[in-house]
Amino acid sequence: MEYTTLGNTGLEVSKLCLGCMNFGSGQPWMINDHEQSHEVIDRALDCGINFLDTANVYSHGESEEIVGEALSGRRDEVVLATKVFGKMADRPNGHGLSRRHILEQVEASLDRLGTDYIDLYQIHRWDDETPITETLSALDTLVNQGKVRYVGASTMPAWKFTKALYESDLNNVERFVSMQAEYNLVDRHEESNVLPACRSEGVGVIPWSPLAGGFLTGKYERGETVTEGRAAGDEFMQKRFTEENWNVLDEVRTVADEKDVTPAQVSLAWLLHKDVVDAPIIGPRTVQHLEESVGALDVSLSDEEVERLEAPKTPVWNPEIGDV
User: Fold this and answer.
1) By CB atoms within 10 Å of each CB, which of 23, 61, 75, 239 scores lowest?
2) What is the domain-level CATH number for residue 62?
3) pLDDT tens digits, one per residue of 94-117
């Protein structure tokens, strides 16, 4: 395993982050088995992955519970990240980034994770109903209490993110050290949005959906009707099935064949070659998928190969994507 520091911090993280959204029973495509989830987590740790990311809303807390179970006796080995924002109760103050919701939810997450501190506590989305100064103040309180070590953000327009950084500097409160952004070979819109801001501000980038929901693994084919798995009936996933994206996948497959590796490994290797990226968030459902992803660390791409992979796609920022 290779390691890096998260943004401008001194926090050492593996260059792959284990995403834990698949752990739980919220959707049919999830693992739905605690023991199998534990096997994936255990193997990830054995492979040297020390960075795990979950969220309170993943299977309504079940993912955090599974992670907590798996880390029993091994908590000190990992950098543990979770998120807050989503709806956790069907009542007023049951979601969002108010001081009340954040302070309530961090206690619930700590309990489910079986720990007394969270390494990286992230806002899952921007809350238009709560002043960012209130959110930052609440997060700063958690750092001062020792319940949170670092704070991060996820998925928002660059102008909102830079506003938050400005307010942190102005009010001398904890600053976001990381950004989770959707980023992969067919979803490159963040190159025209938040990634330049992250590079300029020394913010670590933790890309989610690095394989575009499985599209970049090569398991789908042009013209086929998807009837099983996460993509079946998923409107967001169906939007990836464009001719432009198929052309990207064609090049991914060609490069993979030339190197005798898999399309998934080429796609992850492309992200790992980006200097703005710290650790792509992989979401394996099996130990075999995990080991395949780890193999991407051994795949080297030349500048010419990177250009070939990028050539079919021109990054364009779509504000409708950034606000989901």
Assistant:
1) 239
2) 3.20.20.100
3) 999 999 999 999 999 999 999 999
